[in-house]
Amino acid sequence: MRQLSIIVGLFAAFLLVEAASGQALIFEHDGLDRRYRLHLPDDLPENAPLVLVLHGYGGGGASMQNNYGWTELADEMGFAAVFPDGTRDQWNSRFWQVGYEFHTNNDVDDDSFLVALVQALQTEHDLDPDRTFVTGLSNGGDMSYQLACRHSEVFAGFAPVVGTMMESLYVDCNPTQIRPILAMNGTDDDITLFDGDMDNSDGWGAYRPVPDVVELWSEIMETSILRSSTLPDTAPNDGSIIEFDRYQSKNHPCEFWFYRVVGGGHDWPGQYGNMDIDATREIWDFFAAIEIDPPSNPADLNGDGFVNAADLGLMLGGWGIGSTIGDLNGDGNTDSADVGLLLSNWTG
Length: 348
Fold this sequence. Notes:
By secondary structure, this protein is α/β, with parallel strands linked by helices.
């Protein structure tokens, strides 16, 4: 057996090489040595965003790092990305503890591990705690929903891909803060069934149909305004199209975006299955557009988050020389010049 000093020296060197190359690192939590991979682009600015990327059941952080375009996009856009590993279950498969029926005897606390990990990385690498986001595939998507329900004070946005909510989470989802969410699901998914599995015929445990999950979040987020469209079918031979539903609120700027991949399976769009979009870039663009402390729009006279006919009505009601009710240009009057400014900010 090698001498302890040699082992320590080799281990220290190993950690330096691993950290530099984005290979597996160790984070001790709750008595366990948890593994993760971290990608820090060269010349990363101070207070950069951090994206937590979660693998699916039986997968690992290495696969998410190497196969989904996150490191390349992080280099291009200037954010850090972390790819943790779940623990292994009775079949030696890595997983996130979201309450699958066959994991009832696994008491690992992945919620607190992931929160502790991102908070440690924020401190160690000067990453922005207000711009820390989470996305995940399949079981990692389920975990993303779980974190959205339980730790919305830690993460600024969520993006589950082919994920769902177990019944136990669905009936007990109480986020402390409303955060933007983007979700993608395939209608022909044979693993995360679009129609759910409340009878537990597949053995994962009871979980809701995808439309129920979308409806739940629309209610939680009070996003009653729905705008739907079909995205361009840029890859007509992939056997699927994407219907895009954008849910907005009258009370706040947080939105719920749902990508319904009609004919799509258990896929990460742009990597396999549907090729009309690049899911990785869609998710990052969604995260990057989130305004943590959005400035108020002076044209939003009634403060409902939109500039529309209600604001125009208020402006017209305060029309006149010396009236400041709708005075957007600061000249002391509410007149046609202010109407022009209001219309230029119109959201509908």
